Amino acid sequence: MKPSIPKGTRDFPPAEMARRNYIFNTIRDVFALYGYNPIETPAMENLSTLMGKYGEEGDKLLFKILNSGDFLRGADKALIEGGDTVRLASQLCEKGLRYDLTVPFARYVVQHRNELQMPFKRYQIQPVWRADRPQKGRYREFYQCDADVVGSDSLLNEVELLEMIDEVFRRLKVRIVLKLNNRKVLAGFAELIGAPDKIVDITVAIDKLDKIGLDNVNAELRERGLTQEQVDTLQPILAISGTIDERLEALAALLASSETGMKGVEELRTVIAGVQALGLDAELDLDVSLARGLNYYTGTIIEVKAKDVEIGSITGGGRYDNLTGVFGMPGLSGVGISFGADRIYDVLNALDLYPAEARTATQVMFVNFGEKEGAAAMKMMKELRRNGVRCEIYPDSSKMKKQMAYANASSVPFVAMVGESEMAAGKMALKNMTTGEQQLVAPAEAVEIINKNRL
Predict the structure, then answer these.
(1) Hey, what's the torsion of the CAs at 237, 242, 244, 247, to 10 degrees?
(2) Domain limits, the chain
(3) Strand 93-97 and strand 64-66: pairing?
(4) What pLDDT sits at residue 397?
(5) Phi and psi (nearest 5°) for 301?
(6) DSSP per-residue letters across 198-239
């Protein structure tokens, strides 16, 4: 049988890895530019760390790992016979693959609290896993690129994170819409209709507004236990439109009776004014239906959509004031963002936005004419590599046609030839594979030509 990989996962050959590394390196450079430091956490966490942090829907998407050895030993036989898989899983599985990087980060902060200088700014670029139904832009294994700062309530952090998002996509040349909301505004909605205990039901439903439309959202709100009167009271909120300032004014008028809601409006005003004063390349949008479906957000909510490709959100994040509280460290506020590298990869592929250096690892390939010529080429390659030029030599002295076909298939921009006459002159014949131009140059000149081609 032909080998395969699980649905929702992917192999990445060298050409694709060059593109992915371009994305990772771009994001990593921007994180470092803003003073964030890298950490890593294990692929698997204790299930007790993960469960209950992502809401009911998120818990269902956790990949659970069977205990080692005889995992059925000690399991309740009645649960096995009754087919109670949910309760049985808690007895058979003590560990799970991480669902995101934020909850493991919160665990890390609490576990290492005595070693950390607050505020603590970290970034993390690692894979996460979700037992989701695979579809376009939705994978079971994918990378997240997170930046978080904990130990500070300042909204300057939100402003800087939005700047970082803008800078990453400016460098990647992707046009984006940067959507904002605030969880306190959503809590204000729940207070307004007299159902503060229904905040999760309301946010899960209205977060689907873009996907399923207003009528279906209203139907789901009723299914989740809201009365028709409560659903009717929400309609003016869901219909808010106009400029960002007009939306803020409308929100303030509607939520005037909710202290929590008004605090959310003021936080939105502060963050929006902060980024507008600095200037953004991105289009900024205030979206009152934005909830992102995660229970741990308590303030600002951030989501990014690509303007030129139909795909889900490519970056998201927000403020969480009490996430570390579940690990025994209350009162520590944090805010963070997460870039969905796999979706960004799909966007850049769709728009063909990769620079030349992200298309191939090798900048110059040396032709192998034989033992002596190969040795001379190796010496020249050492000098090129010391000057940062990525190069390789064809390992066998095969026919020229075969070696050139290899260079073409690998999209190598330059080919260097060192024959007898070139050896005598201490030079190489350097051929530009795009223009066909060929010139006799010393290694130092080759470095200059190849690097100029990269710019």
Answers:
(1) -30
(2) 14-35+159-351, 360-454
(3) antiparallel
(4) 92
(5) -125, 135
(6) GHHHHHHHHTTHHHHHHHHHHHHHHHTT--HHHHHHHHHHHT
Higher pLDDT pick, 330 / 401:
401
In tens, the pLDDT along 431-454 reads 999 999 999 999 999 999 998 876
Residue with tokens 């952090």: 157
Sheet arrangement for strand 428-432: 391-393, 364-366, 414-417, 428-432, 438-441
CA–CA separation, 267 and 185 (whole Å): 10
Widest CA span in the chain = 91
The two tokens of residue 313 are 């959100």
Q: What is the pLDDT of residue 291?
A: 80
| 200-203 long-range Cβ contacts below 8 angstroms, 24+ apart | 200/55, 200/295, 201/225, 201/226, 202/226, 202/234, 203/291, 203/293
pLDDT in tens, 12-45: 888 888 899 999 999 999 999 999 999 999 999 9
- Asked if 189 and 234 touch (Cβ cutoff 8 Å), the reply is yes
What's the rounded mean pLDDT across residues 130-154?
89
- Stated as kind and residue range, the H or E segment containing 74 is none
Would you call the peptide bond into 196 cis, given omega within 30 degrees of 0 as the criterion? no
Looking at 248-257, 340-349, 351-360, which range is the least confident one? 351-360
**Burial level of 373, CB count in 10 A (0-12/13-18/19+)?**
buried
Q: What angle do CA 86, 298, 46 make, to 5 degrees?
A: 35
Report the predicted TM-score, pTM, of the whole model to 2 decimal places.
Answer: 0.83
Q: What is the CATH code for 360-454?
A: 3.40.50.800
Q: What is the CATH number of domain 14-35+159-351?
A: 3.30.930.10
